[in-house]
Amino acid sequence: MDQLRAMRVFARVVDDGGFAKAARSLDMAPPVVTRLVAELEQHLGARLLTRTTRRLSLTEVGERYLDKVRGILADVDEAAAIAADATLLPRGHLRLLCPPAIAVHQLAKHMPRFQAQYPQVTLEITSPGPVDTIDDSYDITIFASRELPDGDFIARRLARSEVVVCASPDYLDRRGRPQHPTELPDHEAVVPPMVAQQRGLVFFSGPMNGGAQRVEVPMRERNALSTTHIDTMYAAALAGLGIAGLPSYVIEDALLEHALERVLPEWRLFDITLWAGMPSRRYLPARTRVFLDFLLQIFGGEDRDPWLQAAGCATPWNGPMPAAG
């Protein structure tokens, strides 16, 4: 008797609720399905199913056996998939959830290189708004969080991003370049509403492992612009409206092109960590694994800010910041 085949048939009979339906699902003759289950029961020396003319039900032994059978079949299928992946190129559809600013300012410009490497992988990016934990309906979630939230998932650190005080050279030429955080209230500000409602912002200068100087700067009563939309803040800063605080992954290209200039480069505001999260499964398809590797390659996968480093204006004081505020 092919015991593994009989196990599959038994599980399908239970799932479909009858021998005839299982036979149709498996494209087998009904007598063959009945015979395989009977042979399995005979081999085990136990009745697994109770059959009547109207219904089919599991015996107590059958319930316990089915639970183990499902685990065995899952392991066998996983092993087969792993073996197949070892010989096949990554292929298929990959669903990614991430914040809009990461999709616009980072992922989009790297996608041609990924597509050239893996032409048989198609990518769907959903960017509904801020993302601070994973959604297990997606293959990978890129999210921003200072600490990993609780949950049944696995996550890899992609990078750390500082929120950088910056402005256009045109604005700074007109209004002057602040030399100390206490000069910021004299300038026009482009901020999100939650920052506008705070009494002040806290800046740090110096190594975080001791001796850092801390300065709290009061907020202006009126700001040039308050918006929840990060790309509106970015566009306003580029246009010379005022000084903004933006994540380094948003302004990397603008810094490189000198469209924006870092203000107070020796002072730090706060930072966030970017993570790639995946549902907690023992097996990841090849397309998911190669895209995760690609993310780690382009972002660095370390507890540092690669975008400020690439732009040549990294903060001299390395290391994660204390909690914002």
Automatic annotation (TrEMBL):
The organism's place on the tree of life at top rank: Bacteria
Q: The HTH lysR-type domain covers which part of the protein?
A: 1-59
| InterPro entries hit by this protein | LysR-type_TF_proteobact-type, LysR_HTH_N, LysR_subst-bd, WH-like_DNA-bd_sf, WH_DNA-bd_sf
UniProt keyword DNA-binding present:
yes
Q: Keyword annotations for this protein?
A: DNA-binding, Transcription, Transcription regulation
Q: Name one GO molecular function term.
A: DNA-binding transcription factor activity
Give the protein's recorded name.
LysR family transcriptional regulator
Family that this chain belongs to: Belongs to the LysR transcriptional regulatory family.
- What Pfam families has UniProt attached to this entry? HTH_1 (PF00126), LysR_substrate (PF03466)
Instruction: Report if keyword Transcription regulation is assigned.
Output: yes
